[in-house]
Amino acid sequence: MTHGGRALQRERTRQALLREGRRLFAARGYGAVGLSEIVRAAGVTKGALYHHFEGKSDLFRAVLEQVQQEVARAVAAAADAQDDPWARLVAGCRAFLAAGADPEIQQIMLVDGPAVLGWSEWRALDEAASARHLAEALTALVEAGVIAPQPVPPLVHLLSGAMNEAALWLAGSAGPGDLADTQAALERMLEALRG
Amino acid sequence: MTHGGRALQRERTRQALLREGRRLFAARGYGAVGLSEIVRAAGVTKGALYHHFEGKSDLFRAVLEQVQQEVARAVAAAADAQDDPWARLVAGCRAFLAAGADPEIQQIMLVDGPAVLGWSEWRALDEAASARHLAEALTALVEAGVIAPQPVPPLVHLLSGAMNEAALWLAGSAGPGDLADTQAALERMLEALRG
DNA sequence: TCCTTCACATACCGTCGGTATGTGAGGGTA
DNA sequence: TACCCTCACATACCGACGGTATGTGAAGGA
């Protein structure tokens, strides 16, 4: 190669694989995309892919982690823009629904993620990325006495599941007012948790 | 073959494929099970499988439909045992959570289902089986004035998503009181929809 | 009895994920 | 600057898989 050192080129190749893998996985789903297609799009060969990742599912895992962290960052940013703990929760939920509207994120994070990595591993990644923020927000609200004292983990899964499905539904059969209606219904459910 | 007519034997073969396919898909996931394994377990060959189904994913679709209908039947039975519309909704939700506790049902219905068939087709099957009951129950409650007038579809997806995730979580990391806590939290959310 | 049909079994193919090995450009060392 | 080791890939190859094309023998009406 004409430019740069080994480390730079290495990083370029890795990023190209992640970028094209993400694009193809998102567009057509994990199962419908072959390794040969990914490496061709990235301008490398299978040797490069197996030099950087352990296999197809490991590449997908890296892509998923990237997607999860992007979503988590958006949610955290929306929450941090608010001061009131309750407003932080609502803003975070809204941001999650908005992020889930992206079909790329849906296919990778919600459709293929659990099936490719298995539910337990998917949950671990989700926990590390976004579910943790939700749990912290709810815990803060319980401690502050804003919502009734109750076990937080069930709430986390009920809410994140509700938002996952809602995001998926909204992107698929979106009527114009559905997003607003869904946010309204979600906030009504959140309201129910208050004392 | 020594016994029975062609139609009987045909049905026996089809049921054997469905039974073993369901068992293997549930135990190890769609991707990790090969056709050769299924037909060996069923005591037939690939020719038989392709005579009855269009391919691997079509067999899975048939298995999924079977699972969905079993769940829907259990939910409907629990709901029909109640007279009050509100009690019917709560009983149906409880029954769904109980049904989702089965790891077989989880893997097929919630993990592999969307990834193998695609989200839109999965939703169509879910709609035809169990989501329809939820929508009808909610519509009845709205019309009866038990819960506030509001668009029903967003509620359906928020609630079914919440219950799907909760069922998955309960089966995986089940603490002893988690089921009760989850049901309590869910019913608190349902309560929020009233008046 | 014959002959068609049907419910499979057998044999085969292309492609896929994965592996083993080759190779040539850095880049530190003397 | 000559050397050489390393590393970041490329090349060649393999077994297994999903899918297809074709063979076959029993069932059952005519």
From TrEMBL, chains A, B:
The keyword Transcription applies. InterPro entries: Homeodomain-like_sf, HTH-type_TetR-like_transc_reg, HTH_TetR, Rv0078-like_C. It holds the Pfam family TetR_N. Keywords: DNA-binding, Transcription, Transcription regulation. The keyword Hydrolase does not apply. Residues 11-71 form the HTH tetR-type domain. Residues 34-53 bind DNA. This is TetR/AcrR family transcriptional regulator. It comes from Planomonospora alba.
